[in-house]
């Protein structure tokens, strides 16, 4: 064989080997890019899902807060008016509680732990504030103070939930 043939065989083999190496590198890069894109999309879906749940909790909690605000206005009324209006507000709060509780359960499910714990405590604070209305309706001694403390606890936990939700969503950025 002459040297021209050897050069052609070596050149051809080198070209085939270079093509194979390039193909493997390109396939590996494409695979890495697909995985990265998939992780980014999954992270974005989780973030948006959590955001929607957190917004629902906050929205429902603010609806409840509006009813608590109305209770404060009622406390200045005469005894008969106060008793009747607090009874009405208790009913409205019972109706508002179910959607809020559902949203809280979803927030607990979505997590993370800091948000779940704040959501559970928010739910507990709503129950306590709602229960404090019954003695208030009966004009029990000290009922107003107990209600105001329970309401303040609700607002404290709403703020903690909002902060935990904001921090959890910021961790996705």
Helix content: over 70%
What is the string of helix and strand elements? HHHH
Amount of beta strand: under 5%
The major β-sheet equals: none
CATH superfamily: Talin, central domain
> First CA to last CA: what distance?
65 Å
Which of globular, elongated, flat, extended, rod-shaped describes the shape?
rod-shaped
Radius of gyration: 31 Å
Number of strands: 0
In DSSP terms, counting alpha (H) and pi (I) runs of 4 or more, how many helices? 4
The top-level CATH class is Mainly Alpha
Oligomer: single chain
CATH architecture assignment name: Up-down Bundle
CATH fold description: A middle domain of Talin 1
Q: Quick check: average pLDDT?
A: 88
How many domains would you count in the coordinates? 1
Protein structure class? mainly alpha
- Model regions low in confidence, pLDDT < 50 over at least 5 residues: none
Plain-language structure description:
The protein has 173 residues and is mainly α. The protein has one domain (46-170): Talin, central domain (A middle domain of Talin 1, Up-down Bundle), CATH 1.20.1420. Helix content is 91%, strand content 0%. It has four helices and no strands. It has helices at 3-74, 79-110, 113-137, 143-170. It is rod-shaped. The termini are far apart. The model has no long low-confidence stretch (mean pLDDT 88).
């Amino acid at each position: 064989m002459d040297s021209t043939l050897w050069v052609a065989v070596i050149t051809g083999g080198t070209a085939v080997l270079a093509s194979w190496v390039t193909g493997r590198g390109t396939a590996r890069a494409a695979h890495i890019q697909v995985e990265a894109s998939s992780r980014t999309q999954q992270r974005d879906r989780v973030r948006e899902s959590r955001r929607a749940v957190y917004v629902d909790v906050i929205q429902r909690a603010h609806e409840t807060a509006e009813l608590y605000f109305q209770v404060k206005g009622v406390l200045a009324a005469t005894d008969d008016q106060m008793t009747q209006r607090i009874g009405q507000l208790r009913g409205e709060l019972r109706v508002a509680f179910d959607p809020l509780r559902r949203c809280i359960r979803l927030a607990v499910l979505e997590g993370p732990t800091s948000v779940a714990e704040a959501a559970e405590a928010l739910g507990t604070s709503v129950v306590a504030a709602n229960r404090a209305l019954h003695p208030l309706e009966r004009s029990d001694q000290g009922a107003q103070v107990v209600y105001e403390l329970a309401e303040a606890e609700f607002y404290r936990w709403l703020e903690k939930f909002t902060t935990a939700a904001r921090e959890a969503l910021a961790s996705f950025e």
